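Q: what does this look like with manganese (II) ion bound?
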Amino acid sequence: MDLTILGIPWDENSSLHRGAAEAPPLIRQAVYAESSGLSCENGLDFGSLNIHDAGDLVPCATTPETMAAIEEAVSRELAQGRGVISLGGDHAITWPVLRAYARHYPDLSILHIDAHPDLYDEFEGNRHSHASPFARIMEEGLAKRLVQVGIRTINNHQRQQVRRFGVEVFEMMDWRDDQFMDFDSPVYLSLDIDGLDPAFAPGVSHPEPGGLTTRQVLSVIQKSNATIVGADIVEYNPRFDAGGSIGITARVCAKLLKEIAARMSESRY
Ligand code: MN
Ligand code: MN
């Protein structure tokens, strides 16, 4: 499928730190850094893929208006037959993106990689919090399955939400590298960078040790039988990144973007 990259520089629903809104241009800069190539592991070249960069969405004055703008921007690309990879921003962007996706793919499955389940009914009074997108998504029936990987912060409330919504959780403590992920419908990949261990991706607002390696995330993406039709890369916070002029986490985001794009380019839907 042909692809669109859409930056969503918006972090107003991040509970603790701002900064994720600054991520999209830094991820693009890392993708095209002279120090790394554009070859993808499946043999495709990122520079040769049919990708339209739609630039960065301009947030509106209020959260509902910005969410409507996100939904509309994603719907426009889907209507043209393009798969969307959005670059966040905090994880609150995923609900409006999924509202657009659910209309286009009524039997969607979600593969969600994150340290956190993000299933809070509300967090500190905010139902649009970056800790709540998957509660909204499942309430509205926007996906037939939600499969979570990398989870290591689950509490009693969120365990109740897991049961309520029938979420399939692969907790980090039980993770096996030979875990096979079987999907029988189009898959939307929601990738919270804090799903990785902070040793690999320190530039996040909520670092949680004991997470996935870069290689393990790539394996989950490459080795499942998922037909990926959309994706987001969220929660990269440049303010906490480490490294030189191009941060470690920016480079990890760029690598994941290249490999997700290469995998989606092979998708037929
Ligand atoms: Mn997270
Ligand atoms: Mn998240």
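The longest strand covers residues 2-8. The beta strands are 2-8, 51-56, 82-88, 109-113, 145-151, 168-171, 187-192, 228-234.
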